[in-house]
Amino acid sequence: MILPRLALRNVLRQKRRTVLTILVLVAGYVALALAGGFMAQTFQALSDGAIQGGFGHLQILPKGGLEADEGQSLEHALPNGEVLATQLRKDPAVAEVLPRIQFMGLASNGTRSVAFLGTAVDAEREPRFMSTAERIASGAKYPGGAGSRWISHDPEAREAVLGIGLAKSLGVTIGGSVTLMSTTPDGAMNAIDVEVAGLEDLGLRELNDRSLTVSLDTAGTLLNAGAARSRLSVVLKHPEDAAKESVRLASLTGAEAYPWFELASFYRQVKLLYFAIFGFMGLVLALVVLLATANTLLMSVMERLRELGTLRAVGMQPRSLLVLLQWEGALLGIGGSLAGLVTTLVLRSILNAMHIQMPAPPGTSHGYELNIHLVPLVYLGAFLGLQLVIQVSAFFPGLKAARIRITEALRHV
Amino acid sequence: MLDLQNISRVYELGGERAGVFDISLQVPSGVLAVLAGPSGSGKTTLLQVAGLLDSADSGDVILEGRNVSALPERERCKVRLSRLGFVFQTFNLVPVLSALENVMLPLQLQGEPEAAARARSIHILERVGLGDRLNHRPGQLSGGQQQRTAIARALVTDPILVLADEPTANLDHAHGGPLMALMSELSRERGVTFLAASHDQAVISRADRVFRLSDGRLEAEA
Question: Does the N-terminal or the C-terminal CB of chain B have fewer CB atoms within 10 Å?
Answer without folding.
Answer: C
